[in-house]
Amino acid sequence: MTDNSRTSATAAVGGRIVEVPAAQENFKADTAVLRTMRKLRLPLKLRNRELTLLLFACAINSVAILLVQLGALGTIDLDLIYLGAGLSALVLGLHVCLRYVAPQADPLLLPIATVLNGLGVAMIYRIDLATGASGWSAASTRQITWSAIAILAAIAIIVLIKNHRVLFRYTYLFGAFAFVLLLLPLVPGIGREVSGARVWVGIGDLVSFQPGEIAKIALAIFFAGYLVRTRDSLSMVGRKFLWMQFPRLRDLGPIIVVWALSMAIIVFQHDMGTALLFFGLFTVMLYVSTGRLSWILIGFGLFGAGAYFASQTLTYVHGRFQNWLDAFSTQVYDAQGGSYQLVQGIFGLAHGGLIGTGLGQGRPHLTPLSQSDYIMASLGEELGLAGLFAILGLYLLFVSRGLRIGFRGQDDFGKLLAVGLAFTIALQVFIMVGGVTRVIPLTGLTTPFLAAGGSSLVANWIIVALLLRVSDSIRTGPIQEVSS
Amino acid sequence: MNRELKRVSVLVLVMFFALFGSTTVIQAVQADALRLDPRNTRALYDSYDTERGPVLAGSTVIAQSVPTGDQYVFQRQYPLGEMYAPVTGYFSPNQGSAGIEQYMNDYLSGTSNSQFLDTINRIVAGQAPKGAAVEVTIDPAVQQAAFDALGDRQGAVVAIEPSTGRILAMVSTPTYDPNVLASHDSKSVISAFSALEADPLDPLSNRASSGNMNPPGSSFKVVVAAAAVESGKYTAESTFPNPVSLQLPNSSATVYNWNRLACGPGETVTLAEAIRQSCNVPLAELGMQLGDDAIRETAEKFGFNSRMTLPTPAGVSVYPKNLDDAQTGLTAFGQYEVRATPLQMALVSAGIANGGTVMEPTLVDRVTGRNLEVLKSFEPKVRNDAVSSETAASVTSMMLDSVSTGQSNGARIEGVDVAGKTGTAQNGEDEPYSLWFTGFAPASNPEVAVAVVVENDGNLGRHSSGNIVAAPIAKKVLEAVLNK
What is the pLDDT of residues B223-236, one digit of tens each? Predict the structure, then answer.
């Protein structure tokens, strides 16, 4: 470490620097003191990097909102800027918390989540301007409020959970919790059906929530804990067939249960996206923990068979497939529940072209659900292919930081959990953006951080908090000390 | 575990590359095709945002866009709608367009190639989109005189500057109010349009440049005289037998002069005298001697049987093909299947006035951009050298006599040499006459050529003639030019 970085490091710590030179003078050979010094230096480097990026992210978000106002209104409305500044303050609060409770956490996760969340707010606000929504009926106001709640939830988790291994203890509790959450929308009275999918719960008209979003985190924890406990039997035993080791029939139990759960979601809740997300998550975690490629094959086979069967028997699944394969035919386009939305989204993307129309200057509101399911089409229209590439790049970077935690992790539970959480983000982005751009049939999930929706925001910020927590434990471990 | 993680990372990368690919395909590869899809309303809405450029006649605004509060942003307004309808046409954002509005749409809407740089500049400077101004060649005073002179008659007037081909007046009656068709209420536009279409007087048709074509009658004798002199076999003094009537060969048809008398007292009559008195018998004899090919050749040099774009497309005036002697005889005084627009007959006079050179007729002077820079200007262009200047001079002197002392004296102006020829064309037994005048003034230095057609006997019944009805209208138009 150079003198230069030391100066900058000491400057930022404030009061504590006084002790360091004193300790150096008196106990030069004492490794415990050296370790303390490193602990003081390293987090500063990471957290300072995070702070720089975070300020940059907040600047991008403010500029985005200003551009939306200039583009769509021609004037600047300070109210929203104040609200945005409030969010920036909360994110900076999270950053300050990290300095104390998780000083070695990954420095990229928070800025990326911040800029994605901010761009989402800007685009939702832009569509509110076009549709004339204001106050509490405006999705942007609610999105900002939910963002605040989500960031506060992330702060709470990072402060309360000092060590992610605590979660390992409650593996089965999280499993049961996820199961209950998933069943909630089916409970009469509080279950809600929105555009055909029964995935919401609500009390009165006030609060409505998609428990599936929180369930995916509980499931990731459950899967990680369960697989760490049982993976030996799942990977060691089995019989060789062709070139792969296939599991014993009784070890197929877990995957069959998760598969059945996914199919139940498709049949009873009409939610293909969530089913695909859960099943994909489980299969990948199973593969990572056991190293058996056969699991992937079994998983794909089961889900493929289930999806094919559903597309043949369930009309809504069949319709989704038809909208995907034959979106531009007049018949499908004009049909009730047809490809109109999808094609409008694609028209929006095409309208944006390479560089986009500029924020506030396109017509994303012509696409139905332009604030939620089609938020990527809206962003693609106004920011262009260039903007979408940047956003996809941010997601990729976010996911790769998560996977990096998996690579570097010390404990298998933490590794598996980080991989699971990162993969949910990747899979969700793939399912949504792939659905909007006709790579796969469109299903109703949320685009992480961007789409309007409180449950999704809270869930994704909790993922950020958990990833930060796990990453902190890696850096404080012995190997990191030596290597850095 | 890390080997599996690597594979999962590759899977994530593949998923994201699929998204990079799908967005590229939509936003770059297919973007242009998607923009042209008729179901894509974004391009349409963009066109509403553009303040369509005005159409100007001199300093008179004849079409402009005024802001409205509705989704179309601007509405087209025609301050002198009925008088200029044959020029401007109309523009409705959702029900089509006509006239200059249709054929100069690229410039007016700001989408022409020459405005590409302007569009870039505009985006950089943040200006609102605005189309270019189209300046037409119409002289408001001449247009007004022609419109007033035509009054409530059913007909049309075209005035052309002989040396340039610029159209100074283009009036067609009965006319319509384009403001009605520019309404944003689709239903009212459609009902107004159907009412105009159902009107037996067909106000939507532009009788000046296309419309229901009329036989030119005796006004066509100018073309035949020009063909005769140009052939070198005839002069103004060439003589023809002077019977009261002429039985056409192999035909039951008998040709009489308009007054059922011989053309003057002599046994023979000169070409000049036959033109002056507008006699049919000598012209039929001349036509049969000359042959239809010679007449057609000259007629086509003046513009018959060919398309013209002003840039609005003009109707094709017809001199028929494959004629026998009897039919040729009838065409020599503008009957049988000869059909002409006033534009065509004005072009004949303009060609004679311009020493035999027919200039390309045009309705547009230039197109100017936002900063009054000239985007396109229409320079005078020779269409055809129809006849020699000697021939033109000879025909001019015949036309001068016709106005000063002959059957076209209704167009006589004190102190001005007016050259001209009337026509009273039959449309069949008991059908009303089509009344014509075509000519130019002053003969020594022609400033304007004019053609007038009045249909339906000019509402005067059988006593009407081109000299009684059409010549005075032409006179008013000539005066309007010369008195400036």
Answer: 999 999 999 899 98
Q: Which of B47, B65, B218, B278 is catalytic?
A: B218
Query: Are B317 and B347 in contact, with CB atoms under 8 Å apart?
Result: no
Residue A411 at interface with chain B, using a CB cutoff of 8 Å: no
Does A130 lie at the interface with B, CB-CB under 8 angstroms? no
B114-121 long-range CB contacts below 8 Å, 24 or more apart? B114/B367, B114/B375, B114/B376, B115/B369, B115/B375, B118/B369, B118/B370
Using a CB-CB distance cutoff of 8 angstroms, which residues of chain A are in contact with residue B35?
A: 347, 350-351
Q: Which of A397, A403, A392, A401 is nearest to A450 (CA)?
A: A392
Nearest-5° Cα angle at A255, A254 to A261: 95
User: What are the C-alpha distances in Å from B408 to residues A201, B287, B334?
Assistant: 92, 21, 16
Question: pLDDT tens across B448-477, in order?
Answer: 999 999 988 777 777 888 888 899 999 999
How many angstroms separate the CA atoms of A9 and B148, rounded? Answer: 90
CA angle A457/A260/B1 to nearest 5° reads 70
Measured distance CA(B292)–CA(B59) in Å, rounded:
46
Alpha helices in A14-30 (DSSP H): 19-26
- A357 in Cβ contact with A368 (< 8 Å): no
Query: Cβ-count burial of B484 within 10 angstroms (0-12 exposed, 13-18 middle, 19+ buried)?
Result: exposed
CB half-sphere exposure, A398, CA atoms < 13 A: 33
Measured CA angle at B469 (ends B466, B474), to 5 deg: 85
Mean pLDDT value across residues A310-336:
85
Tokens representing B344 are: 């065509």
How many Cα atoms are found within 13 Å in the side-chain-facing hemisphere of B21? 9
**Is B11 part of the contact surface with chain A (CB cutoff 8 Å)?**
yes
Looking at B151-244, list the stretches that DSSP marks H as alpha helix, in order from N- to C-terminal side. Answer: 178-181, 186-198, 221-230
Q: Which pLDDT does position A7 carry in this prediction?
A: 39
Task: Record the tokens describing residue A458, joined without a space.
Answer: 């809270």
Contact by Cβ (8 Å): A464, A103: no
> Which residues lie closer than 8 Å to B335 by C-beta, 6 or more apart?
B215, B217, B425, B426
| Domains with residue ranges and CATH for chain B | 217-364+377-482 (3.40.710.10)
pLDDT tens profile B174-193: 999 999 988 888 888 889 99
Known catalytic residue: B464? no
Cβ contact B346:B451 at 8 Å:
yes
